[in-house]
Write a structure and sequence with these properties.
With 187 residues, this protein is mainly α. It has a three-stranded antiparallel beta sheet.
């Protein structure tokens, strides 16, 4: 994992970095190509928080440049779903979403990433795509994905060694809070 690099008021985040780095939807801009590549086959999967899906999807392919100062404002109204408080909102913490929404987004991203990975190999190494996928969903979820998603074999087939599977199972016996971060599954 790399640390964000600060250049004046810009943060440069490399594509595989995991976390939430973005502002509200009105503050996001994307290149069209990553969004077209990562557009889910079933848009109903991401009906809630499509911006969260698209921000992460574009980031997985090309990284993120984040401007570290406000260049606009956010209008609050009665229909705001996430930020309905007077200043920053009280519905959900900044950059956080409900666990069910988080799981749905990560599941949709993982499935789409596996589907488009062969076509991205000329841009992103298979090893980097694999690391991004495993960081996104966790190790044991990656093994489960390999079993139920035929597209996952392109990224995970050689990676899923018996030793890695045993290590993942043994660490899975630890309480979740004691596990290293990469062993905490989301999907």
């Amino acid at each position: 994992m790399s640390t964000p690099k600060l250049t004046r008021h810009y943060y440069l985040l490399i594509g595989g970095t995991v976390g939430w780095f973005w502002s509200t939807t009105s503050g996001m801009m994307f290149r069209r190509a990553p969004l077209e590549i990562m557009r889910p086959s079933d848009p109903d999967e991401i009906r809630i928080c499509a911006d969260g899906y698209m921000a992460r999807a574009a980031h997985m392919i090309g990284g993120t440049v984040r401007i570290g100062r406000a260049l606009g404002s956010y209008r609050l109204h009665g229909g705001n779903g996430w930020a309905d408080g007077r200043i920053l909102g009280t519905g959900v913490g900044l950059g956080r979403m409900s666990p069910d929404t988080e799981i749905a987004i990560r599941r949709a991203l993982a499935n789409r990433w596996c589907e488009v990975a062969p076509g991205l190999e000329h841009l992103i190494s298979r090893q980097s795509m694999r690391r991004t996928l495993v960081d996104l969903i966790g190790l044991s979820a990656a093994f489960a994905l390999l079993e139920k998603n035929s597209d996952a074999g392109f990224l995970l087939k050689d990676w899923a060694t018996p030793q890695r599977k045993l290590q993942t199972r043994l660490i899975g016996l630890l309480p979740p809070k004691l596990r290293p971060r990469r062993f905490r599954d989301i999907v």
